[in-house]
Amino acid sequence: MLRLFATVKKELLILLRDRSGLAILFLMPMALVTIMALIQDAPFRDYQELRIPVLVINHDKGNLGKKIIDGLTNSKVFQVTLFTESEIEAKKKVAKSDYEIGISIPEDASEQLNLRIQKFVTITLNEVGIVDTRVKEQTQSTKDTTISVYFAPNIKKSFRNSVLSSIKQVSSKLETQSMLDNFKKALNQDDDSTQNTNQAIDDFINFKEEAVIENQYAILELNSVQHNVPAWTMFGMFFIVITLSGSIIKEREDGSYLRIKTMPGSYFTVMAGKIVTFLFVCLTQCFLMLLVGIYLLPHLGLPQLIIGTSKAAIALVAISSGLAATGYGVLVGTLFSTHQQSSTFGAVSVVILAALGGIWVPVYVMPEAVKFLAEFSPLFWGLSAFQNIFLSHGDVLSVQIYIYKLLLFFGFCIGISYIINEVRQ
Amino acid sequence: MLNHEAIQVSQLIKKYKDSSTPAVNDISFTIKPGTIWGLLGPNGAGKTTVISILCGLLKKTSGDVSIYGLNYQENREEIKQLIGVVPQDIAIYPTLTAYENLKYIGNMYGLKGQELKERISHCLSTFELDHVSNKRIESFSGGMKRRINLIAGILNKPKILFLDEPTIGVDVQSRNIIIEYLNKLNSEGATIIYTSHLMEEAENLCSYISIIDHGKIISDGSPTELLRQHSSSNLEQLFLKLTGRKLRD
Question: B91: distance to nearest CA of chain A, Å?
Fold first, then answer.
């Protein structure tokens, strides 16, 4: 135990006296999480909180245009701006991405919709043996009502489809309502009942969003802070690979490791000293990153980090992630013979593992092949565990699989390092 | 343990994977306790390989090595307590102070508390480094670094001390204090295994010398015996006679 304490103390002293190393270990991840949370705040809000800016040109002389605008506004998905200039000018604005969507309603939209519906009502009533004489003469000349929708060039197909679907939902409701009104008129009912019809349509089918996990807490939506703080905490932890592997290689280069090998104490004692030290660094990093999420980011206009309810689960995930990171650092430091090799490989490999692990982009938006590869990234395991605790109020049991995977990864790295070390002798 | 030879090597062979010829080729020798044994040879002769095997840094391909009757396969930790190593490189942490370095090394040998403090203080004072004990090694001169490197090897009072060019690049004063201390340590019973390219220093310090070339010991004996056997006036002349004048690297 004395040897372990001595090694830990030695490693800590060396770390504390390396100011640039300390900056890499602590300041860089904290700066990174702050910057990334700020940068990604807008994209996260785009899809979840912000209203989509829509430019609407309404040439319609009837009620349809007005009702579409009301429908879009009331849907709480769109931020409607009325545009009075030409459609060409509107398209230019959308092309420049000033607005993400443009909608142009033609001047005879209401009239044409009305004619189409009257024709439909007449045919339907005729089929059931009821003849509506008032609209019979108007059913001869109708055409489709076409509302033009155009998107900014950078809008993705899935997003276009969801927007078109929202617009269709609004127009469909108007069509149905108009159709019912015409049926009523045809059946000689008075117009006062229209309001009741509208209410009835709204209440036919209700959707209620429910949690997929049964507990008393509400499941949080993934926002920039909830994604970036655990993501960059994992990245920061794994970035110690550069410092740790560098420390191992430096000892080998300057002969200190040779001296260590001639002194009492096994390979595991010496490595345990390094692992404990860098695990402490990882846990400190993690703690600081959580503090940034809870206390600093809200001051920058971002949401506060919610860390769930199980502190024990957070501690266990942090410890197992820290061990996985230090194990990887020991492996890289053992594999390579120069600091240049280890720092290049260490940095690039952590970036790749981070990309696969969903640090930049959540894994669920990745292609299937990449999703499969993500399953092998320790950063993905750690991030998934943190998000489970933070977003779904997960506990130790709900993240135990990730903890086992991280600990296995640690054991694998140390085992391989030991074998390499033995073979080299 | 007292009944055993300090070091006994029998038919030692070491072959590296990427080499067609063995670095150490079937050598045998015995070093009695209290000997200052000089292992001399040109670059690439096999000195470092032999010393590394004796220190437990390298595994042998075949043969037997015993340190006071113990072997590395079964008694690695016991042997480590018996030996001290002073490598050619300054194997000390530059950002730690002299005291912090020595405390760490002492702790690794199981020394602690007052005993360790006194030992560090004694060693620093012997090598006239007590006034810089709280200064970082990176601020030390070359000679001071050599001295602290030596202290790190003797802190555990080893029975066998391995020295790889301990006085390389130091001034006359530092060399003098190192050589004086090694003689004192030897007079107290320590066995010293020494390699160097400084023939004059080896001739004066060592009580027994082995000259190694191409992985084989080509001559050994006390310095006086060797000079007489090969009719040479000094060790350098003898060395050139035995190993030739051709450059090796």
Answer: 4
Q: Is residue A158 included in any domain, yes or no?
A: yes
Give yes or no for B57 touching A (CB within 8 A): yes
Q: Which of A293, A312, A244, A300 is nearest to A273 (CA)?
A: A244
B220: CATH: 3.40.50.300
Residues A41 and A56 in one domain: no
Tokens of A248: 């191992």
Residues of B within 8 A of A259 (CB-CB) are: 85, 87, 91, 105, 152
Test A5 with B109 for CB contact under 8 angstroms.
no
CB < 8 Å to A9, chain B: 104
Higher per-residue pLDDT: A207 or B142: B142
Q: Which residues are CB-neighbours of A18 under 8 A, at least 6 positions away?
A: B95
Domain count, chain A: 2
Alpha-carbon span B119 to A137, nearest angstrom: 117
Residue A288 has pLDDT above 90, yes or no: yes
B110 contacts in chain A (CB < 8 Å)? 2-3, 264
Question: Does any domain span residue B249?
Answer: no
**Distance (Å) from the alpha carbon of A258 to chain B's nearest alpha carbon:** 7
Q: Residue B85 is nearest to which of A9, A14, A259, comparing CB atoms?
A: A259
- Of A5, A18, A266, nearest to B95 by CB-CB distance is A18
In this predicted structure, what is the pLDDT of residue B162?
92
Across the range B25-44, mean pLDDT stands at: 89
Give the per-residue pLDDT at A416. Answer: 94
Residue B224 is assigned to a structural domain of this protein: yes
Residue B23 domain-assigned (yes or no): yes
Q: Does residue B248 lie within any of the structural domains? A: no
What per-residue confidence (pLDDT) applies to B2?
A: 54
Query: In this complex, which of B57, B87, B109 lies closest to A264 when CB atoms are compared?
Result: B109
The domain total for chain B is 1
A291/A336 same-domain check:
yes
CA distances from B195 to B46, B87, B152 (A): 11, 10, 18
**Enclosing domain of residue A127:** 52-189
Range of the domain at B75: 7-243
CB A255 within 8 Å of CB A327? no
Q: How far apart are CA B71 and CA B53, in angstroms?
A: 11
The domain boundary, picked from A189, A214, A245, lies at A189
